[in-house]
């Protein structure tokens, strides 16, 4: 068994090193590391599923994680993740999965008595290839070639969520105190409150990930960053919203499971952010963005948010239809709160009833446009705006708005009246008021073409 364990670790790592000499791209090697992490977490989760399902288990040996020999774990992860990514120019995904299936079919029976296979172990093998190896390789391939931004952002988000919400707590419980039983044993009412608090804590991170993809054109992974400097959304209030959300979620999990070890994990995360991530990020962003980045970092802190947003460049514009009662009420609501770096203009005949255009050209319509405008008020309203822009939430809020008011459409293109006119427009033509902007802001940019 000792020889089998040594070979199970050495041969995959040697194969990865050899493939790394063939593929010298920095992006590909960084993507291979990401695929390795994804495969490693996936293999650990698969092993936790395989034992109760009776697919396989391992002989009791030293050097294991929850019964999984660490050397087999590392070798398995290297084969399923980074190796196919580094060889992606020569081995297409279907062939890579087929070769992995053949390799496991040959080697797993040969590893007996270290590996004890159940009668239905091929089912577990297929589950692992489709649920672990395929997503890890897809993430690595897309990241290496910088393709399919939305897909690789979604895969990264899933990976980081699994790392933060399952893997790190599981490691802490394995070598420290606490357990998942303490969480699952809570009453349903407390679990509901806990889920709501977790969503509140995660919202800045989720909004920040979306901001990096939509406004910056990149991802949170340090070796797959956005080419444009992002200072909007949560980044207008906080320099590292994802780290703050991560620490808050770990602390929430520690409280729910009564784990001191997880408190240590939260402290280590803060130390890592301050001692490792911040210097690396600062040097990289200063090199790529220069003065704008240094000005941003002077005004926006790491762990303590601003009350009002940081803003620079051309102001954003929100067009609202003065002839629509809810739109007019929304305009009055925003104007009373003195939005920062936001101009509010009446919608012209060829523009949509509610449309937002950022200074960088990004546009939103309907509920999403109003949610964007909330970013320009203060931290409390911005948090509501980030929540409204979460996947699924925007769709539902827009659905309700469409049912109660009217679906998004050009503002009175042929003189039609709004289904819910404002009080002023019901007796007189709508008042086209001036704009609201921060002091020193530029004149309103030309309206974008109709959508």
From TrEMBL:
Which residue positions does the secretion signal occupy? none
The segments labelled Disordered in the record are 410-451
Annotated membrane-spanning segments are: 28-46, 95-115, 121-140, 149-168, 188-209, 235-254
Q: Where is the composition biased (Low complexity)?
A: 419-441
Q: Where is the composition biased (Pro residues)?
A: 442-451
Q: Which GO terms describe its molecular function?
A: methyltransferase activity
Q: What UniProt keywords apply to this chain's record, in alphabetical order?
A: Membrane, Methyltransferase, Transferase, Transmembrane, Transmembrane helix
One GO-annotated biological process of the protein: methylation
Tell me the protein's name.
Answer: Protein-S-isoprenylcysteine O-methyltransferase Ste14
Q: Which organism is it from?
A: Micromonospora mirobrigensis
């Amino acid at each position: 068994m000792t020889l089998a364990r040594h070979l199970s670790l050495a041969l995959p790592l040697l194969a990865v090193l050899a493939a790394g000499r063939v593929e010298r791209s920095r992006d590909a090697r960084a993507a291979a590391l990401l695929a390795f992490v994804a495969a490693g977490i996936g293999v650990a989760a698969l092993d936790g599923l395989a034992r109760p399902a009776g697919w396989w288990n391992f002989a009791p040996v030293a050097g294991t994680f929850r019964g999984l020999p660490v050397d087999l774990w590392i070798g398995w992860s290297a084969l399923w993740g980074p190796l196919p990514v580094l060889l992606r120019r020569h081995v297409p995904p279907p062939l890579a999965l087929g070769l992995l299936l053949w390799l496991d079919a040959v080697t797993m029976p040969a590893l007996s008595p270290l590996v004890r296979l159940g009668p239905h172990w091929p089912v577990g093998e297929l589950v692992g290839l489709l649920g672990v190896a395929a997503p890890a390789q897809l993430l690595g391939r897309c990241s290496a070639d910088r393709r399919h931004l939305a897909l690789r952002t979604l895969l990264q988000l899933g990976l980081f969520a699994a790392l933060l919400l399952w893997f790190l707590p599981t490691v802490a419980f394995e070598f420290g105190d606490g357990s998942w039983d303490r969480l699952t044993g809570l009453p349903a009412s407390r679990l509901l409150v806990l889920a709501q608090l977790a969503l509140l804590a995660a919202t800045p991170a989720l909004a920040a990930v979306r901001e990096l993809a939509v406004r910056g054109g990149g991802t949170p992974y340090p070796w797959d960053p956005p080419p444009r400097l992002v200072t909007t959304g949560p980044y207008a209030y906080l320099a590292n919203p994802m780290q703050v959300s991560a620490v808050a979620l770990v602390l929430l999990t520690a409280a729910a499971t009564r784990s001191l070890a997880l408190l240590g994990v939260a402290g280590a995360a803060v130390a890592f952010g301050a001692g490792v991530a911040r210097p690396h990020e600062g040097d990289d962003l200063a090199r790529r963005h220069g003065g704008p980045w240094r000005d941003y970092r002077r005004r926006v802190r790491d762990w303590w948010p601003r009350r009002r947003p940081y803003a620079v460049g051309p102001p954003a514009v929100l067009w609202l239809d003065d002839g629509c009662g809810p739109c007019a009420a929304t305009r009055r609501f925003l104007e009373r709160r003195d939005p920062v770096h936001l101009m509010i203009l009446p919608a012209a005949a060829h523009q949509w009833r509610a449309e937002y255009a950022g200074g960088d050209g990004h546009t939103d319509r309907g509920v999403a446009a109003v949610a964007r405008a909330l970013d320009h008020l203060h931290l409390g309203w911005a948090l509501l705006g980030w929540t409204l822009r979460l996947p699924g939430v925007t769709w539902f809020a827009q659905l309700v708005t469409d049912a109660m008011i009217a679906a998004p459409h050009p503002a009175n293109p042929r003189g039609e009246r709004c289904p819910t006119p404002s009080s002023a427009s019901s007796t007189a033509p709508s008042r086209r008021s001036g704009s609201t902007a921060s002091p020193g802001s530029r004149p309103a940019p030309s309206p974008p073409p109709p959508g």
